[in-house]
Amino acid sequence: MSVVLKSAREAASSSGSRLTRFAWLVLGWNVIVVLWGAFVRATGSGAGCGNHWPLCNGDVLPRSPRIHTVIEFTHRITSGLALIGVLALLIWAFREFPRKHLVRRFAAISVGFILLEALLGAGLVLLQYVEKNASVGRAIYLSAHLANTQLLLGVLALAAWYSRPAAQGRGFSFDKPRLAWVLPVMLVVGISGAIAALGDTLFPATPFSEGVRQEISDSAHFLLRLRVFHPAFALFSAVYVSFLSLSVIKAKVSADATRLAWYAWGMIALQTVAGGINVFLLAPVWMQLVHLLLADLLWVLLVLLVAEASGSRPAAQIR
Predict the structure, then answer these.
(1) If 0-12 CB within 10 Å is exposed, 13-18 middle and 19+ buried, where does residue 46 land?
(2) 3-state class of 189 per DSSP?
(3) Quick check: 265 and 245 in contact, CB under 8 A?
(4) Residue 1 · residue 57 · CB < 8 Å
(5) Rounded to an integer, what distance in angstroms lies between the CA atom of residue 107 and that of residue 161?
(6) How many whole angstroms separate alpha carbon 173 and alpha carbon 151?
(7) How many C-beta atoms surround the C-beta of residue 48 within 10 A?
(8) By C-alpha distance, which of 100, 93, 49 is closest to 71?
(9) For residues 292 and 235, is the Cβ–Cβ distance under 8 A?
(10) Residue 44: is it exposed, middle or buried by C-beta count within 10 angstroms (0-12/13-18/19+)?
(11) Dist CA 190 CA 237 (whole Å)
């Protein structure tokens, strides 16, 4: 009997490991989709398929496509594959885990976010919030899109984290406000970054002094005026994240929480340097993508850190 039970546990652990690897793969693919979406915006390729959606210039497959069409159509294909991956994760989670399990819940929530992501992406095209559109509506719409994207990545990360065999039986809560507040703070930083990136795309400046002159000019476009807020928000968040990371490390909540805190502390330092380089170089496309990748990785780390530090015991020092 003991041999049978041991074999069953090993089989369950092996299956859980495969699901965990797949969940991380789905998360990684969605990060790639996010980066490609930023590349679409930075290269002005959002109208590569015209104002048609889901068709591309009225066709299922574009004919004699321009480079902007290839870039936009590739983003649509990768987004479709991301949707398939999230749906597959949901089905696997429901087959693998019992009712009310955290992985089931997070997988189900991720489906809702990715469907909303698809609708928001379609809206960008249909509302023509692409190319040289510098309206307030586009800024607001991009902010909502960014927030939804971050929430999608966060939920996928939680599904992968709690699918690990080592995480079985763990609880989940955001019952430590000082920790949990870092997430809305980082959402605000991310939104300000999206607006700054839009300003960099629509109003490129050379040299650096010209960019500063544009931002303080009385006739400056609102996107240029808002661009200056992102560095300030980013520096504040760097101090905040560093303080929280060191607090978790000192509290010795759990081995996982300590490891995540160290990663977050290192990532915020790296991201701060990357942000400075991005500003100094006047936001070239490649540096924008590096900056965004680091931002997404930092976001995922913070979501997992907050979940792990809040759901573990003790940690009485963190409120």
Answers:
(1) buried
(2) helix
(3) yes
(4) no
(5) 12
(6) 16
(7) 26
(8) 49
(9) no
(10) middle
(11) 10
Supply 208's token pair.
Answer: 């650096």
**DSSP secondary structure string for all residues of 11-80:** HHHHHHHHHHHHHHHHHHHHHHHHHHHHHHHHTT-TTTTTT-SSSBTTBSS-SS--HHHHHHHHHHHHHH
The span from the CA of 199 to the CA of 65, in Å, is 28
Spacing of C-alpha 5 from chain mean position: 40
Which structure tokens are listed for 81? 């594959």
Q: Do residues 278 and 315 lie in contact, with contact meaning Cβ atoms separated by under 8 Å? A: no
d(CA 291, CA 300): 14
CA distance 310 to 316: 10
What tens-digit pLDDT sequence spans the chain (319 residues)?
443 334 334 434 555 689 999 999 999 999 999 999 999 999 989 888 988 888 888 888 888 789 999 999 999 999 999 999 999 999 999 999 999 899 999 999 999 999 999 999 999 988 999 888 999 999 999 999 999 999 999 999 999 999 998 776 666 666 666 778 899 999 999 999 999 999 888 888 666 666 666 666 666 788 888 888 899 999 999 999 999 999 999 988 889 999 999 999 999 999 999 999 998 888 899 999 999 999 999 999 999 999 988 865 444 444 4
Q: How many angstroms separate the CA atoms of 205 and 208, rounded?
A: 7
Residue 100 parent element (H or E): none
Tokens of 118: 């698809």
Q: How far apart are CA 56 and CA 72, in angstroms?
A: 9
Residue 220 is which amino acid? Answer: A
Residue 82's Cβ-count burial label (10 Å; 0-12, 13-18, 19+) is buried
